[in-house]
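Anyone up for a design puzzle?
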């Protein structure tokens, strides 16, 4: 399954996160495209980690500066296969 995320992921996105998890629940693996995520907090990190508990997850970038920094600081990037990681776009 391929899921493309865009925009901002913060506490106001929690219902969206639950919907994404529900839609992906039947998948064996998920490819999550993150190039258009402009802001992320623990809401997005929680989504990615919850997905990783259920199935194989691959992240696809390039990651924008703020989400990339957040994922690096928290160690989340180390848990996933990431394509496009070295191509972060400045914004």
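Challenge accepted. My sequence:
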């Amino acid at each position: 399954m391929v899921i493309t995320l865009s925009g901002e992921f913060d506490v106001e996105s929690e219902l969206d996160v639950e919907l994404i998890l529900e839609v992906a629940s039947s998948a064996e693996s998920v490819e999550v495209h993150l190039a258009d995520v402009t802001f992320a907090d623990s809401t997005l990190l929680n989504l990615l980690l919850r997905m990783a508990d259920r199935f194989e997850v691959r992240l696809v970038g390039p990651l924008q500066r703020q989400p990339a920094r957040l994922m690096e600081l928290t160690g989340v990037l180390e848990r996933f296969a990431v394509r496009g990681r070295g191509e972060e776009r400045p914004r």
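A detail worth pointing out: The first helix runs from residue 14 to 24.
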